[in-house]
Amino acid sequence: MPSHHSPLHWQGRLPWLLAHTAIGLVMLVLLGYAWMDYRQTHKAQESTLAQDLLWQQQGIRLHLQTNQNVLENLAYGLAAEALSIRDFNARADALMKVNPELLSVEYLDARNVRVGGLPVYSGRPNSLVPLEDDQLQEAVDGAAALGHAVYSNVIQRNEPMVVLVVPYFTGTVYTGAVLATYSLSQLLQQRIPWWMVQRYDLQLIDGRGGVLAPTGVELKPEATTQEVGFEPPGHGLKLVAGIREAPTSVRHVWLLASVIVLLALLWWMLLLLRQRMQERQQAEAALQDEMRFRAAMEDSLVTGLRAMDKDGRIIYVNPGFCRMVGWQAEELLGHVPPMPYWAPEALEECAAAYRGILEGQAPANGFQLRFMRRNGERFDVRLYSSRLVDGRGESRGWMASLYDVTEIKREREALAASRTQLLTVLEGLEAAVSVTDAATGRGLYRNRHHADTFALFEEGDYCLVPLLPNGSLGADCVDTVSGRWYHVQRRAIDWVDGRRVWLDIASDITEQRSAAEVVRLQSEKLQHTARLVSMGELASSLAHELNQPLAAIGSYAAAGEELLALEKPRVERAREVMVKMGEQARRAGQIIRGIRDFVAKRAPRTEPCRLDAVLAVPLQLLEPLTRQTRARISVVLPKPLPPFPGDAVMLEQVLFNLLKNGLEAMATMPTGHPRDIHIGAELLDDALEVSIADTGPGMPQASQTFQPFFSTKAEGLGVGLNICRSVLEQHRGHLRVEPNPGGGTRFICRLPLASELATSEET
């Protein structure tokens, strides 16, 4: 498929990008136009609002100023005493008729007492401002002090009002004031034209933002507003106007919405069309990739492919076929038999195969043919043929695949020669070799020596008698028929047909076992002799050891008789004496039993052994020699120690020899030199290591320690350490010697925790 960054990819994406960009720009232009139109309309409205509000401010100001001029004329007439009360009331009535917002027009004397005015009443109604009002009084005082007209602050009664105070003077003396009370609500209602009320929402607010008039009108928070100062009353009064949102042209909105919807649909349809085009391009790219992949597969095949039409004319050959025969595809296409790659000596055979293919007689295992390369080299091929069917299921000819089997044929011939050589070698071996089926036990092969050694029944349909124990892959076994011993090795291998088989190789070891048995018997005799020699050396000490418990028994017997012969026999004391007699008798029995087991001649055996029990007999037998040499034997064993398999008597002999050698070596040390033997043990790698370390002079020639008949003692035989090593090796262990860090020699005996003695019962 083309890369995402290839020019072809961008060339296919460019029209879609341009179309989407154009649609997006049109939508942006429409939205921009709508927004700009809205902004211009809004700005025009704001400008018109400002102009109308200023016009209204000027109109109200002009109106109030006109009324103020009229009131000032009235004040001048009162000051000149040119007006009577009747004349004042007549002029006030005329002024109030043309100004409905005026609630009252009256005048006061210098003492702020009402003299005359309209409306005429005996007492002021509640809707008017009383003359005693603080705000009114403040305005009157301010006008008298300033000498010109003054508006009061907003006075709240039933409605918000403001009073215009126009002072008049006689000369420079304050004579009184003319008062005109305005209703702010009526002022806005009467002096604002209808067209402005239709366009805007108007409010009169005080300095703290409170709405004074009209009270029922509320400005929307989002409405565009303008405000101007409400002059000449002043005192922080402001006139606020808000634009009423005019209904937008429905036709304009629907037109804009329709265009946007149509553009969105067009965008969506382009996206769908682009998706379908992408799917088609992906399918075409996948098809092209598949075709290139199949072409690459055919071009990389070592197998030759050849297609022929129904008339036998070559219509297709792959590169593998061209490389195989040495001709180019252009030279072979359209060719008919005889083919240029048929070997002259195999023309008849190739022509027969060719005719068989055209007749539809292609064997399942193909044709074995001899072809010729362009350079004349011959090679063998295996040709398989089948019908060539097109996509409509119609047969168009024949398709053939060819494999060069020249090397395979050579390898088979070499393999056959190698097999012949191997059979020759196996037949010449003096070991019995056999192969049996692992599933059925049926014999598949046996060499000459196996046939001469083992007699089998029903040749060709037999089962081998298993010499090996179940699950074993190698052992020494005895043939129950001939009584001879064989060392058998078994291996699992794959047979020529792929199934699992057992390969058994049996070697006759009868003579070797006989020689080993003789050596074993001699070793046992030597071990027994060594034990007898050791017991002879310890005979006098052991006799002394036996005399001690026997003498104690005699003494305890005499004491018991005396205790029982008293007039009042001391039975409890006599019982204690009898118990001590029994302990001494058991001690003597243990010494005799240990000597008997130690010197007894018997066959080796395997039994669970514990180190403390095995040490008990050598320590007891060597106790006299220990006292004689003034030595000390310390035993430090970790607990718990697991049992191990072995022959207790043979291991007792090993420990006896090592301890006795240590005691005799330390006896030669000068007086005052420490004579200590330390016995320790530890577990290492599933084995028990027992160490016996003395403080003697050490081994001067460690390399000859275990050689037979080598001894550092004048009267020694030199067989003790050799026997110790042999016994440990029979237990699958070993014995080593090393210098003791504190001086002397240390022997280390290694015993596996799970092993079998390398012995067998006599047959």
Structure description:
The protein is an alpha+beta fold and 763 residues long. It contains 18 helices and 27 strands. Strands 1, 2, 3, 4, 5 and 6 form a six-stranded antiparallel β-sheet that branches. The chain has a five-stranded antiparallel β-sheet with strand order 12-11-15-14-13. A five-stranded antiparallel β-sheet has the order 17-16-20-19-18. The model is unreliable at 1-6, 459-465, 714-719 and 756-763 (pLDDT under 50).
The amount of beta strand, in percent, is 15-25%
Q: In angstroms, what is the radius of gyration?
A: 68 Å
User: Biggest sheet: strands, sense, closure?
Assistant: 6 strands, antiparallel
State the low-pLDDT regions, or none: 1-6, 459-465, 714-719, 756-763
Topology:
Elements: H1 7-79, H2 85-98, E1 102-109, E2 114-118, H3 134-146, E3 150-151, E4 155-156, E5 160-170, E6 173-183, H4 184-191, H5 194-199, E7 200-205, E8 211-213, E9 225-229, E10 238-243, H6 250-300, E11 304-309, E12 314-317, H7 319-325, H8 329-332, H9 347-358, E13 367-372, E14 378-389, E15 395-404, H10 406-428, E16 432-437, E17 443-446, H11 448-453, E18 474-478, E19 485-494, E20 500-508, H12 510-537, H13 539-565, H14 571-599, E21 607-609, H15 611-621, H16 623-628, E22 632-636, E23 644-646, H17 648-667, E24 676-683, E25 687-694, H18 720-730, E26 734-739, E27 745-752
Parallel strand pairs: 22-24
Antiparallel strand pairs: 1-2, 1-6, 3-5, 4-5, 5-6, 7-8, 7-10, 9-10, 11-12, 11-15, 13-14, 14-15, 16-17, 16-20, 18-19, 19-20, 21-23, 24-25, 25-27, 26-27
Helix pairs in contact: 1-6, 13-14, 15-17, 17-18
